[in-house]
Structure formats: structure tokens, C-alpha cells
Amino acid sequence: xxxxxxxxxxxxxxxxxxxxxxxxxxxxxxxxxxxxxxxxxxxxxxxxxxxxxxxxxxxxxxxxxxxxxxxxxxxxxxxxxxxxxxxxxxxxxxxxxxxxxxxxxxxxxxxxxxxxxxxxxxxxxxxxxxxxxxxxxxxxxxxxxxxxxxxxxxxxxxxxxxxxxxxxxxxxxxxxxxxxxxxxxxxxxxxxxxxxxxxxxxxxxxxxxxxxxxxxxxxxxxxxxxxxxxxxxxxxxxxxxxxxxxxxxxxxxxxxxxxxxxxxxxxxxxxxxxxxxxxxxxxxxxxxxxxxxxxxxxxxxxxxxxxxxxxxxxxxxxxxxxxxxxxxxxxxxxxxxxxxxxxxxxxxxxxxxxxxxxxxxxxxxxxxxxxxxxxxxxxxxxxxxxxxxxxxxxxxxxxxxxxxxxxxxxxxxxxxxxxxxxxxxxxxxxxxxxxxxxxxxxxxxxxxxxxxxxxxxxxxxxxxxxxxxxxxxxxxxxxxxxxxxxxxxxxxxxxxxxxxxxxxxxxxxxxxxxxxxxxxxxxxxxxxxxxxxxxxxxxxxxxxxxxxxxxxxxxxxxxxxxxxxxxxxxxxxxxxxxxxxxxxxxxxxxxxxxxxxxxxxxxxxxxxxxxxxxxxxxxxxxxxxxxxxxxxxxxxxxxxxxxxxxxxxxxxxxxxxxxxxxxxxxxxxxxxxxxxxxxxxxxxxxxxxxxxxxxxxxxxxxxxxxxxxxxxxxxxxxxxxxxxxxxxxxxxxxxxxxxxx
Length: 741
Known about the structure:
Helices cover 25% and strands 17% of the residues. By secondary structure, the protein is α/β, with parallel strands linked by helices. Among the domains are: 230-319, no CATH class; 598-740, Rossmann fold (3-Layer(aba) Sandwich).
């Protein structure tokens, strides 16, 4: 008996080994592109041949890559393995992939990087290694054989050390991306072996490492982008003694926190980099009031920077911000200045006078009012300015705005759109050389001789205009969309017109003679939004009978009423939803375990996507072990009806996670997902639903037709997102526990 039992066990084990490789990807058959993503695969499917050039295995459960898995795929150009559970790669797994150009191993569980993996990837150009669990890059360079590499993405929250020699063999890169938010040890000179990099992105928190990296990259990188650092710069120079010429031309700070002291020191140190021409600060915060050390800045000499962009700068006490007195000597070589969405309400007159070389100024989406604009553009201010953008501010008087701008003698381009002027005077004073004027969305009801006759381009779209009777002899481009015009402008008024946009007006037709009267017209954007080179209308279109017209109007009205009723009461939707419900009712309430591909399907409003995609997804998908989440934006099948996508995703998910907020209950798509979840998930004996409250919300705020959801909120516990950081760890622990249950 025991012998028979032993033989049975051996045969069973042998049989199971033979059956395992039969798990395959059906879309791989006889095609060059093999898409096996999000199929719940536990290993690389067998049977790959030399015909396959692209293999997508992303978002599966693969844990290991064996030497024989890819042995026959000798013509593979792209291999996508991101977002799996890979922790082990045999050293010669990629040995036969000499033609591979793209390899993505990001967001896996790799605890180390082996040079042997990449030893035969001579054609590799793009390598993604970010989001794993390695703490360093090894004692030597893992990339020494990758002579054709052009893009390298590496790092993760656990990366702590970068050593000299880690980048040996890499000489030229287009993009280098390093996630080093917890990098604590950087050996100076580690990045010096790379001779030329076009764009480097570094996520850092350690300011000493920031300085060391800048010193190494001064002579190799063209554009350096630094993210997520609280900048506290040491006084030590960023420039080392070297005979090499500087290469750094552009420096970008994104999501960086500054203080007055760090900005003062940064300005001084950056002057030593004589090649630096452009500075950007995007989504940054300044913890200060502009109390910069202007004496030290002044003693350090002039700046070589020509372009400065500040986008969405958050200044807590912006209304107390200093006027930057003492900075006058630092701005005279600046040529382009952009400060948008940063709550700027004025520029001090004395400072504005010293922008002697500035030709481009963009201050759109700020808090400028007419009184402050008059101080910002005082006499002799901005003497060389040619282009000015003041759109989306709080200007109310076109007369005062024009008077202020008339002090700019060289101004050619002016954008004052999206200011609520509401009225237009008969006469305005403008710069003599003004050629391009944007007055769109300014609520002006008519046109007067306030519009300068020197213009070559005029945009007065989205106003309340009923006619155009203004003579502009030099005008070449005219934009009149979204007004109430019933006829084309008279050709004698604009004899040199080349381009005309008049879509979305009350114009129904125009004659051949009207069109041909524009002798120089090349582009007409008219009734249907098409570009018209010549107008040819049929007799039927020109001479419809009254009876046909009436019938068409009546049919149109009937259709319009039916469409409106259907839209108001979601008739088409609910017909399709009912059909989907009838099909879903035939299926078992719980899918078999083998069909479960995700730990949770996430239902959320697009307005909450920043929290979901950048905070929750990162926390859960980079957990150890990671959770597999299904997101509509990423995982829905393109071209498939969205209801089928929702149903299939819920059935293939162990849980359904609802991120509730005020945006959620107002979202039509979220309501539709709840419609389906009514009969599929919200059974009182079914715990497949997890509710996360992103913000306080009353159950009464949920639409009344979701009575079961309201009842569940009153009878079952749910998770609330805490604003306090010390409570967030408990929240994540509870959420992970709920997903595992």
C-alpha cells in the first residue's frame, strides 16, 4: 500500500509540473505584438518564438524569471514587466535578447541589481528600474555593458546609497531619472562618469546630497530638474576647480520648499554657473516674505540667467511680501519672465524700471487690479518689453488698463483676455507699435475706435458683439468666434484680412459675392468649424421651400424633445443598464478564485484622482506585498462599453473600494457604478464593499435612489481619511486589513 501511495505522489507531482506551463496568453498566437497585461499570470507564458517583437506582461503576478523563459524570443524589441511581483531573475534570463531596446522592470520586488542581467543587452536604449526594493546599485556598475542606453529610470523609497563606479559604462543619456527621496549617502563623483545628459530628474530630501549632485552634473547635464526637497543650501560653492566648460543651461525646481535664506544663498551660488540661462520653479512653496539678503546678492555680481518661470508658487503671507528693494541690479539682463498662478498683485515701480532687457512678461492668472497695474507699469518701467500677458487677472477698466500699457513704447503683443471689463470707451491710448491684441472673454458689448488701427491681429472671441463695423486697414487675422454676429464683417473694413474665425455665431449663410470680396483671404473658420478655401452650395441648400423647412423644423423639435427627455431621465442608459443587469443576474454572485485578478476595484471621482492615483495607489501598490488595484483610467479595456468594463472589473476584484466625497456623489459615472453595485455588491450579507470617506459627508447627501448605500453607511463601519499625519499610518493599516479580509 505504501509503495502504491509513493508512486501516486510522484506521478501527481510530475503531472502538476507538466500542467503548470500550460498557463498561456491567448493574444500571443502568431502575432508580433503580444499583450498579456493584467491577466493574472504567475509566470512568463511558454511558447514565445522569434516572431514576437513586443511582449507586454505588466500588471500580473509573476514572481520569477527563469533562464529558459525568453530563450526563443530572439527578436524581442520591447519587454514590459512592470507592476508584477518579480523578486528573482536568473542571471542569463536575458542572454538571447540582443535586439531588446526597451526593458521595464519597474514596481517589482527586486532587492538587488545584477550586472549579469544586462550583460548581453547591447541594443538596450530604455531601462526602467524604479519602484523596486534595492537599497543600492551594488559595488560596481550594473550598466557597464549598456553602451547604447539613452534613458535610465531608477531608485525607490528604500534607495540609500550611490557609490563611485555605479554608472561606469554609461556615457551619453537623453534622460536620467533618480528617485532618491531617502538617499542618505552619495559618494562625490558618482555621476561624473556620464559625459553628457540632456535631462536629469532627481527626487531628493537631503540638501547636502543636492549640492554634491549639482557639483557632479555641472559639466555634463543640460537640464537639471530637482523635486520634493526642502532647500537649505550650505555656503560651500557649487563650482569645483575644473578646466571643463559648464554644460548646465536650465535648472527646474518642482514641489520644492524654499525659505528666504535658502533663496538668497541659491541666487548667490547659481551666479557661479556662468552657463545657466533658465530657472523654473513649479508648484513650489516659499516660507517667507521676501526678506532676502540683497546686500550679499548684490556683492556677488550680476546674474547670467535670461529666463525665469514661476508657476503656481504658494506664499502663505503673500499680502505681506516685500517689494524686493535692493534686487534692482539682478534683473537688468533678464529677457523672459513668467509668473503665473502665484497671487501677484503688483511689481514695485523702482524694481520694474530695472528690467531693462526684458522683452517677454507673462503675469496671467494673478491678482492685478487697475490701481496696482498703474504702479507696476509706471513711467520708464519695462523699457524693452515687446510681449505682455495680463489675462485672467482682476482688471475692470479698459480705459485705465490702456493708459497704463501706453507707457510701454516697444510693446507689440498684448493679451488682456478673461478680464471683466464689461464696457469699452470710444477712445483709448495704446502703444504706437501695438500689432497683436487679445480682448476675448472680456464682456465688451460693442466695438469702438478704442481698438487701435495699427493692429495686424485681433481676438475678440467670446464677447457679446452683434456687429463688426470697425475699420482696421492693416488687420490680417480676426477672431470673432462665440459672439452674436449675423453677417460677415464688411470686406472694405478689413482689406488685408488673411484669416477669419467666425464659428459659433448666429451666421447661417453668406453669398459667394460676400466671400469673394475678401481678396486676400486664405483661411476661413466658419459655421461648421471647417476650413473653407471655396464655398460651393447646392441648389437644394440655397433654395429650400417653406414646406420642407417647416417639416424639418418640426422633426428637429420632436427629436430634440425626445433627446432632452431621454437625457434628463437617462432612458438609454437605464435600458442598457437593465440589459447588463439581466446578464449579470445569471452569473454567480462571487467569481471563482481563479478568475480574481485584482485585490480591489477602485471607484472614485475624477476630481479626487490626485489623492487616489498619487497617494493611495502608491501606498498600496508599493506595499510589501503589493496590492493589485483596478483603476478605470489604467486598466479598462479600450473600445469596450464602459458598463461591461465596470461589471467585469468588479467581478474580477476581491473587493470594491469606494472613495466617497462631495465630488463622488455629484459624479454621474460614480452614480452609475453605484447603480450596478446595488444588485451586485451591496447585499447586507456581502462584505465585498469598502467605503473610504475622503472628506466628511452625510449619508443624506447621497442620492435617495441609493437607499441601500445610505443604509450601509448608517449600519456598517467605514474608514475616514485623517488630515493628521500621525493618524494616517493607522488608516493605511486598517485599509490594508480590510482588503485582505
